[in-house]
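Team,

Forwarding the record for the chain on the shared tracking sheet. I've put the sequence and predicted structure together so nobody has to dig through attachments.
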Amino acid sequence: MTLRVVVADDQALVRTGFRMIIDAREDLEVAGEAVDGQEAVRLTRELVPDVVLMDVRMPGLDGIEATRQIALSGSRARVLVLTTWDVDAHVVAALRAGASGFLLKDIRPAELVDAIRLTARGDALLAPAVLSRVLDRFLRTTPDPAPPPSLAGLSAREREVLTLIGQALSNAEIAQRLRLSEATVKNHLTAILRKLGLRDRVQAVVAAYDHGLVRPRRP
């Protein structure tokens, strides 16, 4: 099965570089290139890619809003945000908008290919601990939000599992902590994603912070 990728970046040189790396692999192909967020949304709708490589800073519709529109459209495409800084504040906004992870533009070719494959499978590209550190840095000054109404649909056990996901625990660690089987934890995670309308585990970590279940650590 060939994984289809849309590359969205306003710099032709960047798009060309990514295309060369991606098209050199037998199981990957660049289905289209977008020069701005609006075109990225359109191509995602028309070409139905598996993964979108999305630059944040683009003219017109930026990558964050484009990511939000793709996520709200119900597209199965997963978005990887491209950034020049691994602690860029825009990364958090993109993750909240529905991105499944972020990549540095100077990523090595082999790492880019692995990231695309992992993300297409629905696996977490970002280690939860890495994501937690990013969220900690940029949410320290954010007022603690009141739990939104959507959490009311979770059972007490599901809220507990979501909290532990936000604390960067793996399924195995959660299972040990709660004395459950890993299969049961996976079932709880599936239910959490469905009830909260989340796309993957990365989104669950962000939700745990945004819902106030996990609070940013102080420096």
